[in-house]
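To whoever picks this up:

The parser on our side crashed when reading a file containing two proteins. I've narrowed it down to the boundary between the first structure block and the second sequence. Both blocks are reproduced below exactly, byte for byte. First block:
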Amino acid sequence: MATSTPSIFSEAAAMLNRPFIKPELDSTSLRACSHRPSMPAEGHKTHLNTLNVKPESYRTLQIMHTVKPTVFSQNAVKFIHKFVQTSYSEGDTDRVLGESITVPVLCYSVPDKVIPYTDDVDGICQWVLEYPLATVKRLVHLVFPETKLWNLDLHRRDDIDEDLIRHFTWCPKPSLITSVEDTWKPSMTIFVQPPWIVSPKELELFITCGTLRPPRSDHEYPYESHERLWGKIWDVCIRKQSHWFVLTTYWGWVFGAFSEGWSRAFVSEVKRCDTAKPTVLECLFYWFASASGVEGAWTIPEVMLFTALTCFIFVINKLDILPSESDWAASSDVSSASGCDTESNFSDNTEVAETAEVAQMLLSPTGLPLRPSVRKRDLSRVADWQRDTHCGADSPAVKRLKHALPSPSEITITSISTVSAIHSYSDVDDFTGAHVRTNSSEMRDDYV
C-alpha cells in the first residue's frame, strides 16, 4: 500500500486519468448497457435535459463570470506544489474514517475498485463517488487534518428531477451542528448528470451563459436547457447555503461558486476527463480545499450589489370640510388675532393673500396651492441678528460649527436612480450595499 501522495498529483497521473475516467464514456464499454440512450453527435445538444425549472422572480442570479483558464490552472498547480508534501506518516487508508485512495497510480499498489457499467444517473453517481471523490476526500483529509470533520453527504430526498440530476454536499458532519450558525458554514454541492443527458456542447453553453433572463412569461420566454441547469443549481445551492459547486457528467467537469449576495456566479472552463496540468483530481483537490476555507486557496470575489428602491404609494382621500362654528368673517386684524408683531415688515395685503391661499389649498383635491408664487422676504432681520450676536466669519460660534462639520473626504455621497441605489464612501476602501460588503482595494483580474 502506498504511503506517499506525490504520484497522485504528478504528471504521470494525467496519463492514468485516461484509463480511470475514460472507459465509462467510451462507446465500446457502454455497449454493454443496451438500455442506455445513444450519445449525441459531436457539437450537438441532446434535448433530454428537461429539468422542471422555469423563470422565477426570487432567483436573483444576474451575471455569470468565467474564471480565466490559465489563471485557474496555474493557481491549482501552485497550490498543490505549496501544500502537498513529499510523504506523510499516515497511509493511503484510514480505517477509522473508512477512507482510501481508489484511483490507480503508477508504481503504487492500489486495490481495484470494480463498479459495473451503468445506464442511469444512479450508476454515474456511483462512479463519481467511488473513484475521483473518494480519492480526493482521502487526500484532503490527509493533507489538511482540520478537514476531517467534513464529509460527503449524499441527499436521497425526493426530487422531481431525480432521474436527470443528483447532488451531494461536501460539508461539516451533521453531528457537529450544535447551533443555527453552524448551518451557515461554507459548503460545496456536487451535481451529477449522465453524459447522454448533458452533452459537451451543453456544458460549453452552460459556462458561456453570461446572464439569466428575468421572468416574464413562461409560455413566451421559456428557459433553454443550459438556463434550466443554472436555475436548478442556484435553487439547490441557496437552499443549502452552499456557495461552492461542481458540475460533472463524468466526461466533463465545471468548477464554480456564487457570490455572497447570490447575484453573481464564477465558473471555470470545462475540464475534460483526460485533461492534464492540472488533472481533474488536481482541480478537485484545489476546489475542495477552497470550499473548506483553507488559507491560500481560491476565494470568491467580492462584488458590488445594487438593490432596488422600495416604492411607497400613499392614497390621499378627499375629506369633507365641516361647516365652521365660528362667526368670524376673517375681516379683522390678522396680525393681532394671530399674536404676530403689529410692526411686522409684512403688509396686511400679503397676510390676507396668504390666508386666501391656505383656504384654496384646503379646498383643493390635491392639497397643493393652485397658483404657487414666490414671496419676497425682507432679510434685514437676518443682518440685524448677525450684527447683534456677532456671528461673523471669525466668530467663535462659526468656528465651532466649521470644526463640527466633516471634511469633504468624509462626506457620504448617496447616488439614487429610479431603478437602484448604492452608497459609496469617498476616500474609503469599503463599498457597502444592502447584502454585500466589498473591499475596493481587492483588484481581482482572474475572471471576465
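<<boundary where parser fails>>
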Amino acid sequence: MAPVLTEARSTVLTTALQREQARDLADALTGAEGDVRVSAVRSDREVVVPDEVFSVIQQVLHAMAEGRTLTVGTMPEALTTTVAAEHLGISRPTLMKLVRDGEIDSFKVGTHTRIRFAEIKRYRAARLERQRKAFDELRALEEAEGLD
C-alpha cells in the first residue's frame, strides 16, 4: 500500500509494514558517519547523501519506526517577532522585553523587528541549560537537607 499524501500539507500516513521497514533501515544505518552512499535498485543509480541530510533522514526513520507524528519543514533565516515568540513558547511582549534587554539579538527591516532563527535556537539552548542547572542545584539542596 502506498503512503497517503495530501496536497495541502503533504501529510504522509504510514502503514505498519512501512514502520517496520523504517525500523530495519534505521537499525542498519545506525553508526554510519560522514557522507553515506545510497544505491537505488530501481533506477540503478548511486547517490551520495551529505551528512547533514543523512541526519534528517535518520530522524525521520526513527520517528516512523516509533509511529510518532513528525513534521518536516524549513525555517526562514529571519523570523517575525510573533513566529519567534511561538517557537520559544512565550508571549510576543515577553520576547520584545528580552530583545530590549539585550538577551536576544534582533535587527530591523524598515520599522519591523526580525530575529534570526539561529538566535532563537541559541537562546532556547541557553534557557534550557539555565533550567537544568537550577534543577540540579535544587536537587542538591534537597539531598543536603535530607528531603528526598
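After patching the parser it read the second block fine. Residues 4-65 form a domain with the CBS domain Like fold (CATH 3.90.1280). Strands lie at 4-5, 12-13, 36-40, 45-49, 78-80, 107-109, 112-116.
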